[in-house]
Design brief:
Layout (H helix, E strand, L loop, with lengths): L1 E4 L4 E9 L4 H8 L13 E7 L7 E8 L4 E9 L10 E2 L1 H15 L6 E3 L6 H8 L2 E3 L2 E4 L1 H12 L4
Parallel strand pairs: 5-7
Antiparallel strand pairs: 1-2, 1-6, 2-3, 3-4, 4-5, 7-9, 8-9
Helix pairs in contact: 2-4
Length: 157
């Protein structure tokens, strides 16, 4: 997957993998994340970083809700250096969301991914990532999930 380095104006290779037990103390120590990620250990927690670098740039906590054939994004956070107008790296959230969509396809859930969003960023999920509202949840599936996978995980950028 390609991450956009805003300062250098180049794409850089990104990697997503499971957070290891050794990562949790590092996440807390670096003070780049607001949430207590150790509380997410019961879920599937993934990190994104640049290839050949250890710095964690973003995190996503997923819950496999098998009985409903969906993956739920329980928590998604990008490091402080990579949010807002002065961020260094772009496309992090998109890559993490697309990764959740890929998992939902691999599990034969039709790319069905949902989340409960804070009110202030619902518009972002809908406009930037194509999510739709359903009750208190936002969701993506099928065509839109496939679009996100192709847009963010495709290495032809």
């Amino acid at each position: 997957m390609k991450l956009w380095n805003i300062q250098k104006q180049i794409f850089e290779e990104g990697v997503i993998c499971l957070v290891s037990e050794e990562d949790y103390p590092k996440i807390k120590k670096i003070d780049q994340f607001e949430f207590d990620w150790a509380r997410e250990k019961k879920n599937f927690v993934f990190k994104i970083h640049k290839k050949n670098e250890d710095e964690i740039l973003g995190l996503i906590s997923l819950i496999d809700i098998t009985r409903e054939l969906r993956i739920e994004i329980h928590l998604l956070e990008i490091s402080k250096n990579n949010i807002g107008k002065n961020k260094e790296i772009d496309r992090l959230a998109g890559c993490l969301i697309a990764y959740a969509c890929r998992i939902a396809y691999q599990k034969d859930y039709g790319g069905f991914v949902s989340l409960v969003s804070k009110t202030k960023i619902i518009k972002l999920y809908k406009e930037k990532y194509g999510f739709k509202e359903m009750g208190t949840h936002l969701f993506t599936e099928l065509h839109n999930s496939n679009f996100l996978i192709n847009e963010y995980l495709n290495d032809e950028k």
